[in-house]
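We modelled the chain as a single entity of 145 amino acids. Its sequence is:
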Amino acid sequence: MMDQIIVKVPSGSVRIKDARCPKGCRLNNPNILMSDKPVVTVSARLRGITEPLHFNSYFGLFEYETKLEVYAGDILDLSCPHCAASLAVEELCVFCRVPMFALQLPDGGEVRACPLVGCRNHRLTIVDLDAQLAEYYNEERRPKM
């Protein structure tokens, strides 16, 4: 059993540096940059077409690039671009009632988000706070605890 502490951080202040699929494949892509940093790349399937989808790696920034024609209200089926493992989880979005997707982080953390285009329901779970803060914040931006 774990207690929860809710910490609110400004959008774009925490970068996801080591996202993985459920089987452990690395999803950060150093070959494509957004905000001058490597993106998180997944496979997105929509209307029978599968293409890479590149997310900005800063948590809370909803920027992405894909060759798919996506419109508000579309629901993307997301998977690992390396092993094809589904990123969907059983939890339903509290707003859209569709299954959320998850990106695994080191030490048991994860990012969960809604795959419905236009929904901004997302959350970052940190299990080892000291390790995660050391990883995500540089020294001058690190919160004092």
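As a brief sanity check on the tokenised model: Strands lie at 28-34, 37-46, 49-55, 64-66, 77-79, 88-92, 99-104, 110-113, 122-125. The first strand starts at residue 28 and ends at 34.
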